# Entry
Amino acid sequence: MAQLDDLLSQIATVASEPFERATILPPAVYTSPDILALEEEHIFKAEWQCPGRAADIPNPGDYITYEIAGEPIFTIRGKDGTVRTFSNTCRHRMMQLLEGSGTAKRVVCPYHSWAYDHGGKLVGVPHERHFAGLDKSAICLPEIRTEIWQGFIYVTLNPDAPDLAPRLAPLNDLIDRYHVADYVPITTQDHVWDTNWKLLTENYMEAYHLPFIHKGTVGGHFPMEDCVYPEELPGPYTYSTFTKGEGSPYGRAHSDNTRLEGKWRYTNVLPTIFPSHMFTLAPDYMWYLSLRPKGTGQVRIRYGASLAPEVVAAMTDRDRATAAAVAFLDEVNNEDRAVVEGAYRGAGAPLTASGPINQLERTIHHFIIYLAGRLGDAHGVWEAAE
Ligand code: FES
Ligand SMILES: [Fe+2]
# Structure
């Protein structure tokens, strides 16, 4: 416990440093099971997380599955168009109901075929008369809080979590102009990488690595001098923007895009919604990552990409063009994978140490302030350090 208290004090100290003296977190924060246990309890069980996009489930009965803090869930669109989320375990003998994604007129358990409607109500029980006193109408899958913001679905297990959309409202001023909710999904993938979830979050947020790691892909078209970010932590999120050269082959508006004007036609916004949902929003595409820890040394990643509707409409060979776009983003992801897995191996090295960060990594400092708040509040250390 003394060790954990010490680590939490160190996190609080790093978070409270003026930016000129900012560093990354102490290496043990990435490898400590005690820190992970606190994160699970006070971040992943407590906060809103993103399992996908409303556009992934456009029609009644369309569903996606996910898991938050050990709870398997599914999110499904009802006949009324409403998107709802439920516990994904059967109320008979606990079987997992749905896997992957798909469409279901009714949610039918693979075990004994109990059936639930899109509102989670039990509506079908085979051989019902063999149950003594079963009252179907009293049985319903537990519903899980769900919000949709900018076309992203968010869910939380925490009944007391403040509503998310009002907390993200200031970001709307920046991103409403893109109409990202209308972007067309082209891929959703689940992966597990060998790194701590925070190392991947930090990597996605910062621009400093782009010209090096992504030299052959996206790196050459992110002008560092036109990177803009908030000085202070703006809320339960942070962001940066990049205004690209007009000649960039991607990350700029298609000629049929009438929504964006001026520099916004070639500006990209990279928000991170804490704790672990981040996306690159460009005039022509959007890709997001949603992360959950799997132990200290692995991270579960849901990764999705979408294209602006006019980009899709202009495609002559949609299958080939979307496959090429997905392959390109897969390549970018793999470039990141190599460095975040390498950094995790470094975090466990006896002689390792945390180094300074620069302006292009400012969003990492925001993330550290956020973490210190969540973990320190939970443990009563943050107040003590103030
Ligand atoms: S466990 Fe689902 S019907 Fe039996
Ligand atoms: Fe990257």
